[in-house]
Amino acid sequence: MLYKSISTQALRRLPIYLNYLKSLPKDKVVNISATTIAEALKLNDVQVRKDLALISTGGRPKIGYITRNLIADIEKYLGFDNADSAILVGVGDLGRALLSYDGFSKYGLTIVAAFDSDEAMIGSTIFGKKVLAADKLKDLCNRMKVRIGILTVPPTEAQITCNSMIESGILAIWNFTPVPLTVPDHILIQNEDMAFSLAKLSKDLTESMRKNHCNT
Ligand SMILES: NC(=O)c1ccc[n+]([C@@H]2O[C@H](COP(=O)([O-])OP(=O)(O)OC[C@H]3O[C@@H](n4cnc5c(N)ncnc54)[C@H](O)[C@@H]3O)[C@@H](O)[C@H]2O)c1
């Protein structure tokens, strides 16, 4: 199908639908409606219907979607059906935690190797991933056609490592450092910032408490 543009909010909801659909017993829930999904996830059913219509043409009045096909449509849209290879640079506390997580494959991501500047770590295998020296980055990315880089180095090393990733052919960077990276237009950046998420949660909590206090 030809996809229409999708909002960031809708894009965030798609993996939530997918996780829910995959949690259902395969043999029992053959068909499913947007309303059922909305009720289960405590979402607005008009919104769920609109989201699903953007990525699947399988919805039928009164029947809903064939669950198996809807899962396939969401996975296809999100690119989870064809695994992307990624490398990770910076095998410290956070890098190791990401390497230890074997659930990325569910999202179509396979970390094929890790890189670190610490000589003591180079050549070792951590959670099944070989740790290589930074000067092997370009060769490996070219050879294995890796296009995604996960950045978990200290902030002082973030921009220089980002530059090396780009020189090595990386096109999309999952940036866990707090550094705003400077990159050419064609490079995609996804920033993950726990400090920002926490600040937002804290601000939302303050506002919610203020509102509740005003209402009592
Ligand atoms: N996104 C978040 O919410 C979040 C949470 C915690 C930490 N962080 C950030 O993630 C990054 C890593 O944090 P950490 O606690 O794992 O740090 P860490 O010090 O434990 O690990 C950093 C690793 O990077 C390696 N390294 C340093 N310079 C390098 C280089 N030029 N090339 C390759 N490897 C290099 C070090 O040897 C070390 O193994 C930091 O920038 C930190 O601020 C982000």
TrEMBL record:
One of its GO terms (cellular component) is cytoplasm. Gene3D superfamilies: NAD(P)-binding Rossmann-like Domain (3.40.50.720), Winged helix-like DNA-binding domain superfamily/Winged helix DNA-binding domain (1.10.10.10). GO terms for biological process: negative regulation of DNA-templated transcription; response to redox state. Signal peptide: none annotated. It is found in: Cytoplasm. Keywords: Cytoplasm, DNA-binding, NAD, Repressor, Transcription, Transcription regulation. Homodimer. Modulates transcription in response to changes in cellular NADH/NAD(+) redox state. NCBIfam families: PRK05472.2-3, PRK05472.2-4, PRK05472.2-5. This is Redox-sensing transcriptional repressor Rex.
